[in-house]
Amino acid sequence: MSGTADCILSVKVSPGASKNAVAGLMEDGATWRIRIAAPPVDGKANEALIRFLSRLLGIPRSAITIRRGTSGRSKDILVSGLSSLDASALLTAASP
Fold it and tell me: What is the mean pLDDT of each run of 10 residues along the chain (96 residues)?
């Protein structure tokens, strides 16, 4: 992949899903829908989201920070060391 720039991903999380998965882009074309199996209790869904994105994007968990929305479904995620083009390409490849 190409760059070492940081990017911000807008995501809408659906906790309590049957499995972790990227469900594609929302109608706005800028927000990713992500299903997470963990329940939205005691930060478990946030931790599962960070682990899932870490594996999917091939970066350490420490490079992922929830900048906005820790207690809601809509979140802005700071991804360090990955350009928005590269992140989008990886999310698109994981989408149905």
Answer: 78 97 95 97 96 97 97 97 95 94
CATH at 67: 3.30.1200.10
Tokens 């070492």 -> residue? 4
Instruction: List the domain range (segments joined by +) for residue 32.
Output: 7-94
| Range 29-38 contact pairs with CB under 8 angstroms and sequence separation of 24 or more | 31/74, 32/91
| pTM value surpassing 0.70 | yes
84 CB neighbour count, 10 Å cutoff: 14
How many C-beta neighbours within 10 Å does residue 3 have?
A: 12
> Which residue, among 3, 13, 2, 9, has the nearest Cα to 78 in the 3D structure?
9
Angle, CA 63 vertex, CA 46 and CA 26 arms, to 5°: 55
Length of the chain: 96
